[in-house]
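Justification of computing resources. Each target in the renewal requires a structure prediction run like the one illustrated here; the chain below, 301 residues long, is used simply to show the kind of job we budget for.
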Amino acid sequence: MKKWIALVVVFGLAGFAWWYAFDGSTPAKSAYSFRLDDLRAAAAAEPSERPADIAVEAVGNGTAPAFAISGAFDFSERRFDYASFRIGYADGRSVIVDTAADEDIAKNVLKGSFDRAAYRRMIAAMADADRILVTHEHIDHLPVVARYPEPAKIAPALRLTQPEIDALPAFAGGKLPPALANLKPAAFTRATRIGPGIAALQTPGHTEGHVVVFVQTADGAEYLLLGDIVWLMENVRDATTRPRFLQTFFFDPPEDRRTVQAQVRALHGLAAAEPNLVMLPAHDADHMATLIAAGKLKRGF
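Resulting structure tokens:
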């Protein structure tokens, strides 16, 4: 009898460990909607008015184990980029999405590499941008806004959600420079036009202030910048998300697991329904390299 009890305990613990540390499953169906038609309507513009292209600047690189990304029992490594995106118009106007990380964060917090030249290009592009959006308030997306060397140059362009604004002081030693102290929050609770061919929608789950950005370029190509709803396109392909232990202990505050699961399943369905829609997770180095090779994304600002 004691042996049976021991076996039950062992298998029970093993099952709990799998459920907690390696379960990246999502529901078979999801009612979640990314309101693609609303985003298209909000972004609508004549082809000549839309952006000409999207460029990506990777200011740093790192790796992460596969099990932390999709919950599978897989300890191989995946490549991560710490990236910023520049949506450029033919007349020189631009919209920046995400501000990656500075050298301190890239090396000391993320434990990755850092490209100073790429960082300088990003800083310069931010100064010239007509709009600056950040997909969410995490340390590899937002802090350069708070630490920008000349904040008055970028303040008029910033369009941040209230949770993003609330997170800024933590990245600036607790006190924001005057130019950033009284930012007005952007409301993206419905599909909102950012400029011709560009619209944003708040998608809380990974964080409270998370935003996706839709882009339709002059040639008719469509993009959806996903932030960190998923880290890699394999999550969309396989409808998998991060395991519970990571969602609970790695993020502060924790992810809303049920919402993220529903979002990932919805992205899986959207990929099938809209095969020409280019999805851009913020960190998928291999996916971005493939898009660059195909001419769908430009490397560098």
